[in-house]
Amino acid sequence: MAKFNPRICFLLGFVACASLLGVGAYLQFVEELEPCPLCISQRLAILATGVVFLLAGLHNRGRKVYAVVSAVTALSGASISARHVWLQHLPPEEVPECSPGLEYVFQHFPLADTIKLMLTGTGECAKVDWTLLGFSIPAWTLLAFLLLATWGGLQFVNGEEQPENE
């Protein structure tokens, strides 16, 4: 099996996460697609995964720990994305009610309620504003998280080969 420098691989994972955040910013600020609570939660999970990848790339120790943490962080994001995809496929009569704006919720609700709202989604999360090849943004994000989790997890077995004793 080919072995690659784990630090470079982790830094490539960071670049992937930064690119995903860049796409999110483009869709929000150029295409004017306003993110829902689950979209924001997914961005936070991408950011967290990217930070783990960056720390792993800069730090020269603990490759296996970073591999597990990056995979777990990405899988946490995948679970949020999966919830979002599920909401988008609910029949209209089963879609939860829309909530007040996130800014209002942050100002007037307890933190626990705000976090619950951000992780479970609301009616506006079920709306599909944009697709590419028939897949919505959360579906693409779910795929990205699964790829990031795989990439991070592969670094568990991707280490420097030990020289053989002669």
UniProtKB/TrEMBL annotation:
The keyword Disulfide bond applies. It is a multi-pass membrane protein. InterPro entries: DiS_bond_form_DsbB/BdbC, Disulphide_bond_form_DsbB, DsbB, DsbB-like_sf. It holds the Pfam family DsbB. The keyword Transmembrane applies. Required for disulfide bond formation in some periplasmic proteins. Acts by oxidizing the DsbA protein. This is Disulfide bond formation protein B.
